[in-house]
Amino acid sequence: EDSSEDHDEL
Amino acid sequence: MNIFRLGGDMLHVVSIFLLLLKIQTSHSCAGLSLKTQILYMVVFSTRYLDLFFTKPWHSALTFYNTIMKILFLSSSAYTIYLMQKRYKHTYDKVHDTFRIQYLIAAAAVLALIFHLRLTVFEILWAFSVFLESVAILPQLFLLQETGEVENITSHYIFCLGGYRTLYIFNWVWRYFTEHRRNQWLAWGCGTVQTLIYADFFYYYILSRKQGKKLRLP
Fold it and tell me: Please, where are the H alpha helices in chain B?
């Protein structure tokens, strides 16, 4: 699972 | 991207614009907490480390995020520069005495206990989320110390609170439309943060209704 997917907000 | 998220981000941009407008037009940073601004700088610089690893053109959303991250980081640094250098003589150092080292320490401890994955990147991200939820406290503390609040400063905090509120709607929206279930950290801290603003909202709306300047008890 790509962790950047979890943090796609500001 | 949904309307709540976009609206929230836009309010965040407006709040930064108001803050800089206030400093530039009045040639003063009176009533503003440098400690809150420093906390935001710490929040942005620990959260946006992915700027170094993400290709901005990966997708439209990444591009949008990259622009916003750079905007938040640079405006935050510029605000600190204005407060610490150019308008230093107007800075209310005597009343801006909130001990931010406790907030930073508490956020660090919480981040070491609660994080999504055990990596430096994820722990710093969690730290930034915990710290952001309390970053406005020195500003509210300063307003309470000095009693009266300038209109533009209250608009600034109002916009920041509005941005947080819209983010909650955004999370509810994404929970149902994208089935995002693993964001408990951002949701929990975001809710705490919004509750801190709610108290300010109450007095803000009261002062609007009475057509008076905002006064905190």
Answer: 3-26, 34-47, 60-81, 100-113, 120-134, 137-146, 151-177, 184-209
d(CA B53, CA B154): 37
- The SS3 of residue B135 is coil
Which residues in B have their CB inside 8 Å of a CB on A? 5, 9, 12, 47, 50, 54, 61, 65, 68-69, 72, 116-117, 119, 121-122, 125, 167, 170, 182-183, 186
Angle made by CA atoms B21, B7, B201, in degrees to the nearest 5 = 65
B100-146 tens-digit pLDDT: 999 999 999 999 999 999 999 999 999 999 999 999 999 999 988 88
CA-CA-CA-CA dihedral for B20, B21, B22, B28, to nearest 10: 70
Residues 6+ apart with CB under 8 A from B63: B56, B57
List pLDDT tens digits, range B103-116.
999 999 999 999 99
